[in-house]
Amino acid sequence: MAEAHQAVGFRTSLTSDGAEVELSAPVLQEIYLSGLRSWKRHLSRFWNDFLTGVFPASPLSWLFLFSAIQLAWFLQLDPSLGLMEKIKELLPDWGGQHHGLRGVLAAALFASCLWGTLIFTLHVALRLLLSYHGWLLEPHGAMSSPTKTWLALVRIFSGRHPMLFSYQRSLPRQPVPSVQDTVRKYLESVRPVLSDEDFDWTAVLAQEFLRLQASLLQWYLRLKSWWASNYVSDWWEEFVYLRSRNPLMVNSNYYMMDFLYVTPTPLQAARAGNAVHALLLYRHRLNRQEIPPTLLMGMRPLCSAQYEKIFNTTRIPGVQKDYIRHLHDSQHVAVFHRGRFFRVGTHSRNSLLSPRALEQQFQRILDDPSPACPHEEHLAALTAAPRGTWAQVRRSLKTQAAEALEAVEGAAFFVSLDAEPAGLTREDPAASLDAYAHALLAGRGHDRWFDKSFTLIVFSNGKLGLSVEHSWADCPISGHMWEFTLATECFQLGYSTDGHCKGHPDPTLPRPQRLQWDLPDQDRGQFCLTYESAMTRLFLEGRTETVRSCTREACNFVRAMEDKEKTDPQCLALFRVAVDKHQALLKAAMSGQGVDRHLFALYVVSRFLHLQSPFLTQVHSEQWQLSTSQIPVQQMHLFDVHNYPDYVSSGGGFGPADDHGYGVSYIFMGDDMITFHISSKKSSTKTDSHRLGQHIEDALLDVASLFQAGQHFKRRFRGSGKEDSRHRCGFLSRQTGASKTSMTSTYF
Strand pairing partners for 458? Predict the structure, then answer.
């Protein structure tokens, strides 16, 4: 009966900022304002959803159509061909009164039906137009007449001023490729890495699969493609992410870096205040759908579904399967500092807290001398444990510390105020970048809440970073948010001359709420398959596809570069052939004609049907020793790389997919800079991130030497005994004309 006792003895309540106040007029006012904010948000979302649903039309088009019908009726014309009269007959006559009102209602109903039919027709027409992918397969700089016609029609049917989700109803569904084509492309992709005997055996298995199981599995996939939004994405999310029992740290989560050369302020609390405020501004724009959809060629929209779960989202562990918990709103962030957890409100009674007020709150946490409670300091390490283990411990944690757990999992996002500095240093660029990348990807293992959609990491010297959970969306989505955050907090919000956020502190603001945990004792030199990620967001709810970039053409080019008998023109010709092949694979993947997602879905169906396919089993067991991915720069207009070349994003990275493999992430910023992030496991005796980084730099210089601009670089030949044996670690920088290459190397 503890609930009844608490209810009778109730004298205090908590505001949205966690402060205790008397249950009086201020509390009632807080309740009123909270309800008012909620209703405003609901009405705003309803209106935005309505505008999205009728796009490319608008509510004004209904008014115009209704007015035209009324005008025609006044002129004794019937555009409905008698339908409005039938509608009037179905309406109540109200005793013969209000005859004119019945006519207006009939006209409004007819206008609404006609308007809805026109909108449906526009959606169908736009979906058919967006199903054309001929433009993707055309050479760069060339455009055929069909493509020009297609662009004109898309421009006509696309409407003006689209919102973030305006095109969702018009995106085509991802097609199921021909299973014969998929198997053929798969065999082509493994040919360079298999011996003749192994390849012949694999080809036999493939033909057996095509003869015995492929048709049935393909039929089920086609059935799903007609019924579901996407025939592969939901299974990809469930089986690759949510059903995985491996720890999230390194295996799944990835990171993003701050500006590489610039830190706008050395004050940790100030940087946190501006960054949190900028992130919440992005969330505000996201809720109002004021973020424009991404358009290729300024015309072809990409799917925006993944934006829905950036904020207020947590991956909840389960014994057999995790699930994603997403809240419509959250008015606080969870903060970790020196083993303590805090709840920091992000809104006042009327609006979002200013950056200076948020800085004040974070400074209060930094100045708080209280120690961590027993076991509290290492509590977050549970989110880095195997998922089944964390799920079992979380059950008891939810019973004994439900309020604190809810404050963390229900937060807009997680903030970690690290006690150590990070970032590039001139004294030791290699070691400093290694440490920076390691801190973002893994930290100390117990200072990140890896289940949150993302953790904002603020180091003691003001450096920033992001650790991102992968299941809810892919890197371009979080990258878009991160670009906005860096540009907004630095160029728009800015800092005062003394390094603080602009504005004034608010001494009346309640202090951050320390979370209380009632915790029990707890214990704490060959070609390989290469994974290159490509997006499939040309299609509704599309996510990614694999580009199998280790092709025969690429292998031929690499062999030629190491053959001292080959001339530069011969190598350059092979290089162009390899690039053309890679581009063709990339375009096929983007247009829904890739290999791996189709094979993955076929494998899932075979497991559902308990069908044994040696071919699919072999495909599913393949190890990706080299996993690569690009972080695209999507909002170049936010950065002036010519006048402010130091203010460039340095991208982020992820862990290796294989115990003896590498994870390589890269980002292009402008025309003359590329940054690589290389990771491998310390436990492996077969990998060396530093050495691979050096080889990548050498390879880039070798390729540059093939072109006229790079003739002053000398090619190296491994077989000639003149291999450059330098093993420079971490940050590698080499000026190549006006270009620059930087790398971070990380061990786990």
Answer: 417, 464
Tell me if 110 sits within 8 A of 84, measured CB to CB: yes
Q: Which two tokens stand for residue 124?
A: 């169908």
Bridge partners for 313 per DSSP: 326
Surface-to-core class of residue 712, CB atoms within 10 Å of its CB (0-12 exposed, 13-18 middle, 19+ buried)? exposed
How far apart, in Å, do the first and last CA atoms of the chain sit? 50
Nearest-10 crossing angle of helices 59-74, 99-130: 130
Please give the domain boundaries of the chain with CATH numbers for all domains: 59-170 (no CATH), 248-288+314-514 (3.30.559.70)
Closest CA to 639 of 668, 667, 665, 670: 670
Strand (E) or helix (H) holding 674: strand 673-680
The pTM of the full predicted model, rounded to 2 decimals, is: 0.79
pLDDT of residue 35: 56
What is each CA distance from 685 to 431, 530, 622, 661, 689, in whole angstroms? 20, 20, 20, 10, 11
Secondary structure of 119-131 in HEC code, one letter for each residue: HHHHHHHHHHHHC
Answer yes or no: 446 catalytic.
no
Please give the structure tokens belonging to residue 253: 């989560």
Average pLDDT of the chain is 84
Give tens-digit pLDDT for 249-300: 999 999 999 999 999 999 999 999 999 999 999 999 999 888 999 988 888 8
Q: Which amino acid is at 178?
A: S
Distance from the Cα of residue 186 to its chain's centroid? 27
Catalytic residue among 337, 446, 470, 480: 470
Q: How many other C-beta atoms can be found within 10 angstroms of the C-beta atom of residue 81?
A: 7
Task: Determine the angle formed by the axes of helices 268-287 and 475-487, rounding to 10 degrees.
Answer: 120
